[in-house]
Each structure stands twice: as structure tokens, then as C-alpha cells.
Design goal:
Number of helices: 9
Strand content: 5-15%
Distance between the termini: 101 Å
Low-confidence stretches: 223-230
Radius of gyration: 31 Å
Largest sheet: 3 strands, antiparallel
Length: 230
């Protein structure tokens, strides 16, 4: 480090620890939380006066380093805590990433299996396969990887098969407060009937418009024929 380089407010070790903690956290970490976490440092490693202001200065020092290195991210103050976020000029690329992820929606097979688990839980793999009539190995693995389904125990039947149920992530994914908010089978039937009615109504309208368009063409042809005869 050159002689004119700014002096860090804390040791390199603490800078690296702060960076790692903020990077690894899913939620913004407040200065107090960071201060409490740094309490685990030994007496020899921890400064005698590691205040929240010192932590703030350390994070500002890290951001100056990121600026000097031309990094695409910074540590920002969000909701009273610190969190990594990318610079605004990279927003277009993040938007493309979000759109790409949104394409990876659940397949019809996965949705059908998820519905069976949600309404029948806890349910075993053989029960799920008996209801759907197909092997459930792949779809169960997919749902568990997406954290929508988890193992909740074992059935008290021969072989003690695993029992599956939905997760909190399932509720968040579908905007439910709890499982009692799931639509009742009767409500689903009503929605399906309404959807079928709307489809039939749209098809009838399209057929009517097509018929009227064809009749209009025939009328134009008759007029041209009469004009030609005259």
C-alpha cells in the first residue's frame, strides 16, 4: 500500500469479516448486529473501541476500495442495515436475469403433483403415484429443490414410507397465509366452469365474426357481378 493511500479504520481482518458477513446475509445487517457478531473475535483481534460509527467508517472504506477497483457493486444502507447491491447501470442486465428465471415456471405435471400434496398432505410417494398414475421421482425432486415440498415424517405402514408436505415457501409462492386459504374443491369447480364458459363465449363470437365476414365477401361479389352485366 502506498504512503498516500487512506488508512483503514480497522484491520484488514475485520474489513474482510464485515464484507463476508454482509455478503452472506439474506437480510440487511444493522450496525448493532455487526457489532454483536464481531464480539466473537478474541481480545487480541478485536479493537478496544469497535463502535457502530467505526463499523460505518469501515464500510465506507470498503466502498471506496470498490470504487477504486471499478467493481459493479457497493454496500448500501437499506432498511437500517447494510446490504450488497449492484450499481444502477447494471439494472438492465439484472432485469434480463429476472425474466430468464421467470421462464422456469413449474410444469403442468409439477403443479398437479403439488396440488395433490397440498390437499392430501401428509402424503406418501406411492399415494401420490396412485392418484396421478405416473412415477413421481423426478417431480418430487424438482418440488423439493424449489423448496415447495419437504419431508415431514414417515407413515405408520409397512416399509415406513416418507411423508411429504408443503413448506412456508409454498405459502409465499402462492400468496397464502396458511393452508386454510387454499381454494375449496367446489370453488375450483366453479372457476373451471366459469373459464370454460368464457372460452365457449369467445369461440362463438369468433365464429360469428367469421361468418359475417364471409357473408360480406359474398355480398361484394354479387354486386360486382350485377355491375358487370349492366
Amino acid at each position: 500500500m502506498s504512503s498516500d493511500a487512506p488508512t483503514p479504520p480497522v484491520s484488514r481482518q475485520i474489513l474482510d469479516i464485515l464484507e463476508a458477513l454482509i455478503f452472506a446475509s439474506d437480510e440487511p445487517l444493522s450496525p448493532r448486529q455487526l457489532q454483536d457478531l464481531l464480539d466473537y473475535l478474541g481480545e487480541a483481534e478485536r479493537p478496544k473501541s469497535l463502535t457502530q460509527d467505526v463499523i460505518q467508517n469501515a464500510i465506507e472504506f470498503l466502498n471506496r476500495e470498490y470504487d477504486a477497483q471499478g467493481r459493479s457493486f457497493r454496500i448500501h444502507r437499506i432498511a437500517g442495515g447494510f446490504q450488497f447491491s449492484t450499481k444502477p447501470e447494471f439494472g438492465i442486465w439484472l432485469g434480463r436475469l429476472v425474466r430468464e428465471r421467470s421462464k422456469r415456471k413449474l410444469s403442468v405435471s409439477a403443479l398437479e403433483s403439488l396440488a395433490v400434496i397440498a390437499y392430501k398432505q401428509p402424503v406418501t410417494k406411492p399415494e401420490l403415484e396412485a392418484i396421478r398414475g405416473v412415477n413421481a421421482d423426478y417431480v418430487l425432486r424438482t418440488l423439493m429443490e424449489r423448496n415447495l415440498v419437504t419431508i415431514v415424517g414417515r407413515a405408520a405402514t409397512p416399509g415406513r414410507p416418507l411423508l411429504y408436505g408443503t413448506t412456508r415457501e409454498f405459502l409465499k409462492h402462492f400468496g397464502l397465509n396458511d393452508l386454510s386459504d387454499l381454494p375449496k374443491p367446489r370453488e375450483i369447480d366453479e372457476l373451471m366452469a366459469e373459464a370454460e364458459y368464457e372460452v365457449e363465449k369467445r369461440m362463438l363470437k369468433e365464429l360469428e365474426e367469421k361468418r359475417e365476414a364471409e357473408e360480406g365477401k359474398d355480398d361484394d361479389g354479387d354486386l360486382q357481378l350485377v355491375s358487370g352485366e349492366e
